[in-house]
Amino acid sequence: MAEAPTTLWEISRLFLKLGTTAFGGPAAHIAMLEREVVERRGWLTEAEFLDHLGASNLIPGPTSTELVIHIGRRRRGWPGLLVAGACFILPAALMVGVMAWAYVRYGKMPAIAGLLYGVKPVVIAVILQALWKLGRSAIKNTWLAVVALLALGLSAMGTSPLAVLAVVGALALAASFVQLRDSASMLAWGWAKSLVQAATIAAAVSAGLWPIFFIFAKIGAMVFGSGYVLLVFLRAELVERHAWLTQQQLLDAVAVGQVTPGPVFTTATFLGYLLHGTTGAIAATLGIFLPAFVLVAVSAPLIPKIRGSRPAGAVLDGVNVASLALMAVVTWQLARSAILDWQTLTLAVLSAVLLFRFPRMNSAWLVAGAGLLGALRYALP
Q: Deepest in the core among 24, 161, 272, 326, taking most CB within 10 A?
């Protein structure tokens, strides 16, 4: 039977929901995406999902957002690419914008400790379930198991995600991969170079809308890795180079990006609001996410060609396994800050039992319920 087409309405509904409920950072986003598009809807096979995840890890920008954009393009072409990405980003950007308004008006961030207290343990369970399922598909042989252990060890020692992926790629020694990686690097750095030049010229005057847009676009085109890597770039540009913000303002913005659902890169929305109000928030958000749309649009057609080539496909298998190893280390780090007492441990264990026992359960309900319980715990005397 022919595969039923996916409508833009279905795409928008799914990614608006995920953009509103996907707490926990990229690892949690990837886990929730796997549940929704592989398990519940069958939009992708596990192998296709892993290939798109590997491709997202090989380009700069927010990995989980780029994975969303890939899925949108895979299901509905260019309109799907735009709708999926925009719907995933929009809820978080609006939430962060409201929090930025409150920050400017009242001088502090809204209280969210109770919400996070309940949500974080459930997020750990969601990620563990995804790692189990994706790992069974990705680790196809002994060689890939060795690669996974190597990537796990390197990541646990503090090696940067990009370096881990580079080591895995070097082990493959595939000429086609070298050519592909060089092309991807040239594309990314060529794009970044043009943005650097434009931002340098425009930003010399003040924190106007165009300088804000160009600086955040430059950052979006250059950042590999987690929100902590993003912090380094933001500090260099906004605190040290241009002195537009203080160190404390930057840390507050990164904290908001970490604790709201959706992409961590919506930190840019908060910073843009501090610099130029609502229009600054829009300019910064558009700037930091635009490179992700462009890079996915350029790289997505290459994925079938990579998979069709035996050496390049072998490298992609290795990158997929390494990506899961990186997720595992991030999960361990998150668990140490999420499971604080017997209540959070109970939430994590019960969530894991439910998710493994009922694989098609909608994890968004677990996240929402746990958030409500956490908020009540802090609100009640």
A: 272
User: What are the φ and ψ backbone dihedral angles of 157, each rounded to 5 degrees?
Assistant: -85, 0
Tell me which residue has tokens 């409920």: 21
Distance between CA atoms of residues 106 and 102, nearest Å: 6
**71-100 exposure pattern, b = at least 16 Cβ within 10 A, e = fewer:** bbbbbbeeebbbbbbbbbbbbbbbbbbebb
The amino acid that residue 44 corresponds to is L
Please indicate whether residue 273 or residue 130 has the higher confidence score (pLDDT).
273
> Cα separation of 210 and 136, whole Å?
47
Cα 78 to Cα 297: distance, rounded to the nearest angstrom: 8
Q: In one letter, which amino acid is 249?
A: Q
Closest CA to 30 of 53, 1, 60: 53
DSSP 8-state class, residue 154: H
Contact 147, 322 (CB under 8 A): yes
Rounded CA gap, 39 and 84, in Å?
A: 18
Residue 135 CA to residue 346 CA, distance in Å, equals 25
pTM over 0.70, yes/no: no
- Fill in the amino acid letter for 162: L
Provide CB contacts within 8 A for 227, sequence distance 6+.
25, 254, 257, 258, 264, 265, 267
Q: What are the angstrom distances between the C-alpha of 157 and each of 115, 154, 163, 326?
A: 31, 5, 12, 11
Model confidence pLDDT, tens digit, residues 185-213: 443 444 444 444 444 434 444 568 899 99
Distance CA(302)–CA(327), nearest Å, equals 24
Alpha-carbon gap, residue 322 to 332, rounded angstroms: 16
- Nearest CA-CA partner of 89 in 62, 71, 70: 62
Q: Per-residue pLDDT tens for 10-48? A: 999 999 999 998 876 777 788 889 989 998 899 999 889
